[in-house]
Amino acid sequence: MKRLVNSPLKILGLLAIAIGILITVLTYGYLIVLGLILTGVGLTSYLIDYAIRSFSKNRRIFWAGQVICTMLYISTFFVAYMEWQEHNKIVFPKEFKGQAGIIFGIEGYPELPKTMFWKKTIIIPDDGILITSTKMEDVPNIVRFAFSNNTEIDPEHIIWNPNSEMDCIVSDSKIEAWLFQIESESAAVKDLMTSLCNEIASNKKTSMYKSLDRAISSDGNGQHLRLLNRDLTSLPDGLEKFSLYEIILTGNNFNDVPEQILQITSLEHLIMAVNPIIEFPCKITQLKRLKSVSFAETGIKQINCDLSLLDSLEHFDLSRNGLATFPERIKSIPNLTWLSLHDNQLTDFSFIDSRLSKLETLDLYSNKIKSMSAETRFLGNLKELLLFDNEIDRIPDNISDLKHLEKLEIWDNPIQYISPNISRLTKLKAMRIDDDYLTQKDKDNLKKWLPNCKISFQTRREKKTN
After folding, report:
1. Chain-centre distance of CA 56, in angstroms?
2. What would the pLDDT profile of 400-444 be if each residue is shown by its tens digit?
3. Which residue, 24, 66, 99, 304, has most beta carbons within 10 Å?
4. 52, 124: one domain
5. Which of 84, 111, 129 finishes a domain?
6. pLDDT in tens, 36-75
7. pTM above 0.85, yes or no
């Protein structure tokens, strides 16, 4: 054992090997590559020690070589460790709250400060926004935070998004940024990114970043814009130059339909789902060619405008909005054929009247509906009815009102009775229903009444285990 540690290089070599093995074992092999590197460094130390012993017979020369190699060894490890720990110190204005950010790669703006002793200190201006010509990839990806009065900031109090980007859409440029959110929410940086895109489009600014995949692309129906889950609050100008037939902006932070969209006269399909929109945007009545619109999972609970001008609109989606009352103005849409109201708090069919008689698809699953009441008489043109996950316990005689029905999804309801009048649904092709409370005779009768329909029975117990 003494021969293994009788020189500084051997001691350092043994430590490196031990640490390498320990890292590999404690991480269950996850860091085996690092462990092998350290083991290799340790073995190299023994080889260097052996070489020094072999070529230096003079004891003084031997120890001089040991000291020099040991110093180089320690210095190399120190530099490697500090390189690994290289970081940015982001300094915010004292008591700053809101959205801050660093926008990278904009030509003509100052570069970020040089890294000094493995630390780059970045001072955020009072407005919280720093624009630089430095590219993001030239900056260390480890950050530490502080206020300008030198007080440290708990990282848990900051939401840091190091991968924020905005496609400028009307050009092939994009904006890359780091976003920081401290306590209160705002969209200051996102709005400035949009303004920069406008300046880039008018050749006043230049971004060093280019979009690999354009946000506007084409298919057999024409041009479409799809920007999902981008945390957007605004759109750049110039969209009216494109003949877009579809725009999907699901999962962003819009609180209204952007004005740029209202200028696109060719638009047929608009999806604004999962955005914090509280008031229904009545200005969409300007979109005369609009065929379908979705405001699912927003905050809209009322509609206070006449929608009768939307005479091309056929599909309307207001699902997942917690609606306890049906917005009556939906009925003013003259040619509505598809209505989705699933995942709300509706309790009955009382909202249905003759103004919804053109409906061909009605999506009401995951509500609190307890019965299929007499309003079914207004649904004579209905082809698809989705009622699963409600509280309906019987299929009543008035089911025969749905004479054009082709698909009925009524599973996950405690159905105990099925009226023989269901036999009048001669066009019904598919039906799915729970059989928890049905007897074998009920099931046999249903098959006899609907000989041309594919009936799928399931129990809730089986469904939950699948």
Report:
1. 65
2. 999 999 999 999 999 999 999 999 999 999 999 999 999 999 999
3. 99
4. no
5. 84
6. 888 888 888 888 888 887 877 777 777 888 788 888 878 8
7. no
In a domain, 146, yes or no: yes
Q: Which two structure tokens, joined as six digits, stand for 273?
A: 């789902």
Same domain, 31 and 153: no
Q: What is the number of domains present in the chain?
A: 3
Residues 329 and 401 in one domain: yes
What does the pLDDT average to over 191-217? 92
The reply to whether 76 and 94 lie within a common domain is: no
61 part of a folded domain: yes
Say whether both 318 and 381 belong to one domain. Answer: yes
The domain that holds 397 is classified in CATH as 3.80.10.10
Q: Which domain holds residue 91?
A: 87-201
**Does one domain contain both 359 and 309?**
yes
Q: Is residue 219 part of a domain?
A: no
Under the banding of pLDDT at 50, 70 and 90, the label for residue 81 is: low
Average pLDDT over residues 179-204: 90
pLDDT tens readout for residues 87-146 = 888 899 988 888 999 999 999 999 998 877 778 889 999 999 999 999 999 888 888 888
Q: Provide the pLDDT for residue 380.
A: 96
In a domain, 431, yes or no: yes
Q: Tens digits of per-residue pLDDT, 369-386?
A: 999 999 999 999 999 999
Statement: residue 462 has pLDDT above 60: no
Last residue of a domain, one of 174, 201, 228: 201
